[in-house]
Amino acid sequence: MSFAVCYKYGPLENERSINLLTWTLQLMGLCFMYSGIQIPHIALAIIIIALYSKNLEYPIQWLYITYRKVYKAAEKPVPPRLLTEEEYRIQGEVETRKALEELREFCNSPDCSAWKTVSRIQSPKRFADFVEGSSHLTPNEVSVHEQEYGLGSIIAQDEIYEEASSEEEDSYSRCPAITQNNFLT
User: What is the SS3 string spanning 66-123?
Assistant: First the structure.
């Protein structure tokens, strides 16, 4: 019957009409199942099984979601793995190189207004050299950075820290009866 109606009037386009036709066909199918089986108890059991199997996916999804929430709440959160100093340094270098390449590509693209950019910076010659591929740092900047943050400064800081801690230990061992209050000194 639905085929004949759709053939005569064309396919349904309204969502409500499609839902109404779907429900009507399903109810008619259940009525035909009930009337087609001689034993009413078996007919009702088959209709109930058909209804449950059609809507079985929703309770299964609810059970699965509930299981995942309970399991996730029960398991202990794994703390994130922290980077070592070497991994941190390497990641910083890689990401800096990548960002500088993206900046060069943007500055070479037609989207970048070269005159606006050049008018806002202090040394246009250095910027132009950077866009052409040279380093973004001068040798003087590199040497100052190495002196402040390089390997030599880290070793020197460690030595200073070790000397200071050994001096504190010596002062504590010489005067064991006197307690020092760092807050007042």
Answer: HHHHHHHHHCCCCCCCCCCHHHHHHHHHHHHHHHHHHHHHHHHCCCCCHHHHHHHCCC
Longest Cα pair distance anywhere in the chain, in angstroms? Answer: 108
Cα distances from 176 to residues 1, 163, 164, 165, 182, in angstroms, run 104, 20, 18, 17, 15
SS3 for 185?
coil
pLDDT in tens, 52-94: 777 777 778 888 899 888 888 777 777 888 989 999 989 999 9
CA atoms within 13 A on the CB side of 75: 8
Distance CA 58, CA 177 (A): 75
C-alpha–C-alpha distance, residues 126 and 107, integer Å: 14
